[in-house]
Specification:
This protein is an alpha+beta fold. It has four domains: 1-54 and 248-411, no CATH class; 55-236, no CATH class; 464-532 and 706-848, no CATH class; 548-695, no CATH class. 55% of the residues lie in helices and 16% in strands. It contains 25 helices and 24 strands. The two termini are 22 Å apart.
Length: 848
């Protein structure tokens, strides 16, 4: 039986290889995601290992958490005194100690464009200190280190991308009052042990220059590195340093800091892995339909052969095992090519994310063992699972059937599948109905959609019959004999037709859902801004970083400007989730921000008080009199809730406090967002506003229309990315139609030969196969788009409390999807139709 199975497999190489495309594409996405994730992990691990010393000394931000401290004292808590460097140099086992100043400053390239991957732009002082474990870390590879305040060193990747060369004047933008600096580039630094800043920029100046720029000229540091002498371990040095410093200082080994930093950053970008693996799963589910179809047809074609094997003494188990062996071989083959495709996919993902600022071009792709294990496990498991039911059906062929001219494959009743499908649909509807009272409603919406999708796919062989009957009548009226034959072929095996259409249905259902979500989100943003935005212009940083309060003061002096209001914010950690804490001048709440009160007081915000949005109050239960607790900049804070305000897009966060509260946490007085109102908006006022910020390349000015477009841009980018990934599932669906038609033509070789013998022409044969393909595509498109509309409307309804209160169905876009699906049906039939038309009549009639 083993040899017979291998001979059968080799005898149908072309047919089986076609079905490997689904496995190759699905596994390719899984492998590509894992390779990209491992590359990302290696890059961040190498980066942080090369940017920490043997022992890292930092302020302990929790030391004064429960004390009421003024802003100056809070800011002082965030740094270390310069005298501590000298004390640490004298610790036993220390080779040297170096004070570090770390902040943010942006480099402008030779074309005037602000650089900084993902908004990250690092600035520090140059010390030349080695990294932990004796690693060289950053070293000067061209030029020299900075020696005067007007000199700067850049990392090699930034120099390469910016177009600067040593000796150039470099424009550097800071968020401090100094604004723009123009130092001379005197050196280029790079990682001697490998690693990169992954798209972020880095610059270094002298210690005095960075202290003047970021610490108001005080002899203080944000951290201190202590380098271990030969023979002293990091943990030994850490314990000796900890015995010298006070309780308000945190002492950790470089390994601990590197691991924690890498873990935090990888956790922050873990959504990328989840996002990509979700679409890999979608591709594999769609591919499973193709594999089921392929094995069903192949087993049907081999029915006489399998019956003969039963007549010769093969048991049911042996027949089933022979089919499963083919599935295992197919899964291994598809997984192998999938891993190769995954490497190319990882390179493509790396290139894609480099356009968003996450540049890993300097890091080679990492092929870990888990990539191969997961790829082969997934590929083989999906193939074997998909082939299981056709294999079981093959074992039910009776040996006596080998004596007949035609052998019909046993088919289970469709009633069972129909009942299962209705049960899944009912569960999905109940999940939707109950999601309003159940915990984690978003999960229930997703679970309901998945259940309904699988339920419709299961019940489709029964549900599709009226549609296919209608299509058969239409084809007969339009194409006469070829049309009637195409309709009959589609109706002959509704299980096969629906399984092929289901792959297209899934892809179009998801595409339809995303089109509704995208259009509704854009409409919600436009409505919210039209209802709530009372200003005429918005001033904000291009990469989301703060800028000096002097910008607001300059804007207030522009002729024609009547009112200016600013917002400041910081990232807070609430439990395990990040949340934006916004600070405003309380007087602006009834002014430009026009906040509507829901409960409590929203016109005053004293120190250590907050107000929360209506949506945040509904989600968390926070109300007037409660306490909002979080961790800000590593330090726990507790603020009293004094009011609840109506949701508004003008305030950038769900929790709002006053400027004094942020200052009391030691955060710098820097604005993030400024709204400007003008008595008579026009070109002269706008020109004055732009002139006021002309010296700050990172600060942009937007009117109401352009600001609305900026708010829609992330939505458009996300929808475009999702459509691109869904294209993979649609490609598999198209391959499924091609594969089904090719195998169907092979299966009906004798029938087609007889039709040709009684007068069916080659063109009519091509038309018959093409219309059958169109019927499959139309079925998949119709069911997919209907489900997409239902899913989209339900999903938007569940997001009402998130401010997305407009539901808009883009009928034009959905119509385009349907038209494209029909075109896909025509194109998918080209090769099978040509094959059917070219069959030799006599050879086809004599085929067995």
């Amino acid at each position: 039986m083993f040899r017979a199975a291998l001979r059968s497999l080799l005898g149908r190489k072309v047919r089986l290889l076609m079905s490997t495309f689904a496995i190759v594409l699905g596994v390719g996405f899984v492998a590509g995601t894992l390779v990209f994730t491992d590359t990302l992990n290696r890059s961040f691990t190498a980066l942080f290992a090369s940017t920490v010393g043997d022992v890292v000394v930092e302020p302990d931000l929790t030391a004064h958490a429960n004390e009421k401290r003024n802003a100056a004292a809070a800011r002082k808590d965030r740094t270390l005194p310069g005298s501590l460097v000298r004390d640490l140099e004298r610790v036993e086992g220390a080779a040297r100690a170096d004070g570090n100043v770390l902040d943010a400053a942006y480099v402008v390239d030779v074309n005037g464009k602000v650089m900084g991957g993902l908004g990250t732009a690092l600035a520090s002082n140059w010390t030349g200190a080695p990294a932990g474990h004796g690693l060289t870390g950053l070293e000067i590879v061209t030029g020299r280190a900075p020696e005067t305040p007007d000199e700067v060193v850049l990392d090699a990747a930034t120099v390469r991308r910016s177009g600067h060369v040593v000796g150039d004047e470099v424009t550097v933008v800071t968020s401090g009052d100094d604004g723009v600096l123009r130092p001379e580039l005197v050196g280029v630094a790079d990682f001697a042990e490998g690693g990169s800043f992954s798209g972020a920029t880095w610059l270094a100046m002298t210690t005095d220059a960075t202290q003047d720029l970021f610490l108001s000229g005080k002899n203080r540091f944000t951290s201190i590195w202590v380098t271990a002498a030969p023979g002293v371990t990091q943990s030994q040095l850490r314990d000796r340093v900890a015995a010298v410093v006070g309780d308000d200082v945190r002492v950790r080994t470089g390994d601990e800091v590197a691991d924690e930093s890498a873990t935090q950053l990888l956790t922050a970008v873990s959504f990328l892995t989840t996002f990509l693996l979700v679409f890999a799963g979608i591709s594999l589910v769609v591919g499973a339909f193709l594999i089921v179809n392929t094995f069903s047809i192949l087993v049907a074609q081999r029915s006489r052969e399998l019956a003969l094997l039963r007549a010769l003494g093969a048991s049911r188990r042996q027949v089933t095992a022979s089919v499963m062996l083919e599935a295992v071989v197919l899964g291994i083959l598809g997984s192998t090519f999938g891993v190769l495709l995954g490497i190319a996919t990882a390179a493509a993902i790396r290139a894609l994310f480099s356009t968003f600022g996450l540049d890993l071009s300097g890091q080679p792709l990492v092929l870990g063992a888990r990539t191969f294990v997961a790829s082969y496990a997934v590929g083989v498991a999906v193939t074997v699972a998909a082939a299981w039911f056709p294999a079981r059906r093959s074992a039910r062929i009776a040996p006596v059937q080998a004596m007949r001219d035609d052998v019909a494959m046993p088919e289970t009743s469709l009633r069972r599948r129909f009942g299962l499908g209705l049960g899944l649909v009912a569960f999905g509807v109940l999940a939707w109905v109950g999601q309003g009272v159940l915990p984690h409603p978003g999960w229930w919406v997703g679970a309901g959609a998945l259940a309904i999708l699988l339920g419709v796919a299961s019940a489709l062989p029964v549900l599709c019959r009226p549609f296919l009957a209608l299509a058969a009548g239409l084809f007969a009226a339009l194409a006469q004999t070829p049309g009637r034959l195409a309709g009959q072929n589609a109706l002959r095996n509704p299980r096969r037709t629906s399984a092929t259409a289901a792959a297209l249905m899934i892809g179009l259902a998801l595409a339809g859902t995303m089109s509704i979500v995208g259009e509704s989100a854009r409409a919600s943003v436009d409505k919210a801004l039209a209802d709530s935005f009372t200003g005429d212009y918005v001033v904000q940083d291009a990469v989301g970083q703060p800028f000096a309060p002097s910008v607001k003061r300059a804007l207030a002096k522009v002729d024609g400007v009547t009112e200016v209001a600013a917002q400041r914010w910081t990232l807070a950690q609430v439990g395990t989730l990040p949340q934006l804490l916004v600070a405003v001048d309380p007087d602006d709440l009834t002014g430009l921000f026009a906040v509507d009160r829901v409960a409590g007081e929203v016109t005053r915000l004293r120190r250590d008080e907050v107000m929360v949005s209506q949506g945040e109050s509904a989600r968390t239960g926070l109300g007037v009199g409660d306490t909002w607790t979080a961790e800000v900049d590593g330090k726990p804070v507790s603020l009293d809730v004094v009011g609840v305000f109506a949701d508004t897009p003008v305030l950038k966060g769900e929790v709002v406090t006053g400027f004094d509260s942020l200052a009391g946490m030691g955060l710098p007085r820097r604005d993030n967002f400024v709204v400007v109102a003008a008595g008579s908006p026009g070109l002269l006022v706008e020109r004055g506003i732009r002139d006021a910020v002309a010296d700050l390349p990172t600060v942009n000015v937007s009117d109401q229309a352009s600001y609305a477009a900026e708010q829609r841009r992330p939505i458009d980018q996300m929808v475009t990315m999702v459509f691109a990934l869904l294209g993979l599932a649609l490609v598999i669906a198209v391959l499924g139609i091609v594969n089904t038609l090719v195998l169907s033509v092979m299966e009906r070789t004798k029938e087609i030969g007889l039709l040709r013998a009684v007068g069916l022409s080659r063109s009519q044969t091509r038309r018959m196969v093409t219309l059958e393909s169109v019927a499959i595509a139309a079925l998949g498109a119709a069911t997919g788009l209907v489900l997409g509309v239902v899913f989209g409307v339900v999903l938007m309804g569940s997001l009402r409390d998130q401010g997305l209160d407009v539901v808009r169905v883009p009928w034009g876009q959905l119509a385009v999807f349907g038209a494209v699906a029909l075109v896909v049906g025509v194109l998918a039939a080209v090769a099978p139709a040509r094959r059917a038309a070219k069959l030799d009549v006599l050879a086809a009639i004599s085929a067995t």
